[in-house]
Automatic annotation (TrEMBL):
Record carries keyword NAD: yes
Record carries keyword Electron transport: no
Location of the GFO/IDH/MocA-like oxidoreductase domain: 122-231
Name the UniProt record assigns to this protein: Gfo/Idh/MocA family oxidoreductase
Length: 338
């Protein structure tokens, strides 16, 4: 394995790659040096060309978003498998070029959406697949907290909302059909720092996303509501709770006037909590080995980028944005995606 980008995320990838069975970190690169001291005995190479020159089989790409296309295309041209930190690229056109390059070369190409590896969301997905929620009606997400100094080249939509877009499609097993969004700029930066959005997936599930960098309270919550109740995933703690629709009648006059479901029993599941980043790298390794894997394909990465771009377009034009048939849907029909 080679690693390019030794910043806020790259330093964690360096540690995890060294820990994963079957992976050996043999080369690292970063034009800005190694400010976190993660290279250890390895020389810090200046660029992707030097990284390729070390004879690596696969690479982890953790450079800033605007460099993703350039680095990925060089890796694909050299026959190197790769996982790219989300989003796959800065624009849809760049993302499509990256995905096509890896597909044409017959290489494994993945995107690093680590939230899919969160134990609470994995458990939610599996239980929904097993029918424990019945028909799913709605998925809502809240991703809020203070501004991260590490981000300079994108706004909150491409940095954070892209997680919610990806995990929502994954949980629901459906692409987006339409979105509407509002953004605001309150921190004096070029890029947006707050967003609220709503939409509908192709399978009819309605969705809502609240994302910002300006909240003193850090929140990471995903709620799936269906005919049997709601799953509530706290991805900060990795906890999953199920709140069932109740069947207990009330004779309290103020309550009986409300029509609809009532709150039933709550269950907080005891689930194994493994580090999501480690699970992500193991998924990439398994994909390289030809095993069954839950790694995120590049076509899924392009779909998430297409949706985030539609969110920004909606906010700019104050219009509802419709998502056309995507590579995600075409591959899903071919059975190439889990």
């Amino acid at each position: 394995m080679g690693l390019i980008g030794l910043g806020a995320m790259g330093r964690h990838h360096a540690r995890v790659i060294r820990e994963v069975e079957g992976m050996e970190l043999v080369a690292v690169a970063d034009a800005q040096g190694d400010k976190h001291g993660v290279a250890r005995e390895l020389e810090v190479l200046p660029d992707v060309a030097a990284l390729i020159g070390e004879g690596i089989d696969a690479a982890m790409v953790a450079v800033p978003t605007y460099l993703h296309e350039q680095v990925a295309l060089e890796l694909a041209g050299a026959g190197v498998h790769a996982m790219i930190e989300k989003p796959i690229a800065a624009t849809v056109a760049e993302g499509e070029a990256v995905a096509a390059a890896f597909a044409d070369a017959g290489l494994v190409g993945c995107v690093g959406y680590v939230e899919r590896c969160n134990p609470a969301l994995l458990e939610m997905r599996h239980r929904i697949e097993a029918g424990e929620l019945g028909d799913v009606y709605q998925i809502t997400t809240s991703r809020q907290g203070p501004f991260p100094a590490r981000i300079a080249d994108v706004g909150v939509v491409k940095d954070l909302a892209t997680h919610d877009v990806d995990l929502t499609s994954w949980i629901a097993q459906s692409p987006y059909a339409m979105v509407s969004a509002q953004v605001t700029h309150r921190s004096g930066r070029e890029h947006e720092d707050m967003m609220v959005a709503s939409g509908r997936l192709a399978n009819g599930i309605i969705v809502n996303h609240i994302v910002n960098w300006l909240s003193p309270l850090k929140v990471r919550e995903t709620v799936a509501t269906g005919e049997k109740g709601s799953f509530v995933a706290n991805t900060l703690s990795g906890d999953l709770t199920f709140v069932a629709n109740g069947d207990v009648r009330s004779d309290w006059d103020r309550v009986t006037v409300f029509r609809g479901v009532s709150e039933g029993d709550s269950i907080r599941y005891a689930i194994a909590k493994r580090e999501p980043l480690r699970v992500e790298q193991e998924n990439f390794r398994d994909r390289l080995w030809g095993r069954e894997s839950e790694s995120v394909s590049m076509s899924e990465g392009v779909h998430a980028l297409r949706v985030t771009q539609a969110l920004l377009q909606s906010a700019e034009t104050q219009t509802l944005q419709f998502l056309g048939r995507s590579a995600y849907e075409r591959e899903q029909r071919k059975g190439q995606l889990s």
